[in-house]
Structures are given as C-alpha cells and as structure tokens.
Amino acid sequence: MDTAEVRAGEELADLPATRDAGLIFIGRIETPWTLRAECPRGGDAEHGPDCRVILDPRWQAALKGLTAGDGLQLLYWMDRARRDLVLQSPRNDGQTLGTFAIRSPCRPNPIASSVVRLMTLDGPCLVVRGLDCVSGTPLLDIKPHRLNPA
Amino acid sequence: MDTAEVRAGEELADLPATRDAGLIFIGRIETPWTLRAECPRGGDAEHGPDCRVILDPRWQAALKGLTAGDGLQLLYWMDRARRDLVLQSPRNDGQTLGTFAIRSPCRPNPIASSVVRLMTLDGPCLVVRGLDCVSGTPLLDIKPHRLNPA
Question: Which residue, A61, A136, B121, B143, has fewest beta-carbon neighbours within 10 Å?
Fold first, then answer.
C-alpha cells in the first residue's frame, strides 16, 4: 500500500492544526525492506528474519534486565503514513473499513505495535524477530511481553 | 507509584531538548480511578470494570466495522509520567530494573498499550473492559486485536 495515495471510497478528516504532545525517537530499526510494498502484513516473532534495533546510547542503561529469548513489544513510528484517513479501502476495491477496524499504518497517530523475540543483545544493539516495517523506521518504545514458548 | 518521585538507586537520562514528532489526542478515557495509586497493574479484559472511551467526533467514522465483543488494542498517553528514568525501582527497595524491562508508565515516550474487550458501541462512545489508567487519560489509537474466546 502506498501510504500517501487516496483510493476510491476512502474518507479524510481535517487534521487539527496543533499537536498535543511530543515524541522522542529513541533509536532506529533496520529491516530487510526498503519499500512499504515489500513489507509483510504483520511480523512473525518465530520465523521472521532477524532485524536490528539500534538504540540511542542515551537509553542503553534502560535495557538492564532483558536477556536473549525474551518476548518484547516494540512501538515504532510509521513516519511515511498519512494521518487523515478515517475510511480506508485496504484492497482498493471501493469497499471501506474504519481506520480503527484495521491495522494499516495510516491512522491519526501512526504508532505501530509488534510483538518480537529478542535473539541477541549487544550494547545498544538488539537483534529481534517479528518486525514488519521499512528499514530506518524510528523506534518509540520497548516493553516486556510474555510470548508462548518457542 | 507516584510517577514524579525519584527513588533510591534510580537513574535519569538527559532528555533531548526537542521533540521528533507530534501526537494528536483523539479522545479521553473515563475509568473508576482518579489517582495512579488506585489503578490496577495491568487491566483485565474479561473481569475488569466497564470503562468509557469518548472519541473526538472528528474520528467517529473510523469506528466502522467494529462490533460489540471485539478485542481491541488501545494506545493512550500517560501524561503524568516522568520521561527521563532509565533505571527504576518498582518496589522502592534499591533494586533496579531498566525501564525497557518493565511496563511502568515512566518511559521516554509514556505510551501505554492495553488489550480490551469492546462491550458496547454508541456513536463516539465505547464501553470497554481491560483498562488500568486514571480517568481523563488521553487516547492515541484503537486497533483490532484478536482475543481468546470469552
């Protein structure tokens, strides 16, 4: 899906002129995908490719307590996605669903949430499986998440 | 936990002077809790109390396709939480864990993520079970999420 395009049947909202709070990008995600069209629809924490998360050294101490094998929830910012779509047509067939009924990157706050498995941890660099985004995507948060046994 | 207090053993980072992206508050959450200390640690999508989500009418059309009984993932903004803690002592006993190894509201981007069950939907007002935050918390996103059968 081209995240800038507007398709037949889709509806837009007027975005507010101001923002209510500010985000800090805490790192970057490196994946095998450079275009949105190449990305899988949702990641696979068991069989997906290894991806790297490069944390800003400012936050490195905050990794204390994480170990390889852990399940994590990552939040990241879909910075190429338009934010004003309220009705979307994922299949581009004129049929629409509300933005809150699908997990498209296009939403008022384009925050993606994925569950991943931590494979290795080396200083500020994490290798994880389960991501679905283009390489270079800004990271917002890392939280512990209980995964089923591998 | 008082989200402003700093405890023995906790460590702070210097926050960047600028923000990298802006958030839009899309609604408010109403819960039975007015103080952080009253909130449960994590919600219960089956047996938790009914809470109300009041969506800004600007985004109401984006609910199309959601129905009572659905599982949802809500993202919301913990606006009372400090953002500079890298090591935290959840039990206030001098033992610390990294911010990314716990789900405390205090984190560089204080975005909470909870899985809830949609009980009723009436215009821009959703009744859900599974929240854990103080009343008045700003809403950031609603995403579909598959729940186990009730």
Answer: A136
